[in-house]
# Entry
Amino acid sequence: MSQSKREQVSSHLRYIRLELKEMYQSMIEENLLPEPGEIRGILTQMEALLEALENKGKSKVNLKSN
# Structure
């Protein structure tokens, strides 16, 4: 994985972790459930991250098969 891709993945993971931490704290401290939009936003980010990682793996497979 290239250095820029690693930095991008690391940045995505840090942001997702922060969002989940904030969501968890509001659930515990304020006894509030997260808004559906917040959850959808995090899921979208996680899907984008997974897609980026899967595309990297597919590139390796395509290169090996040639």
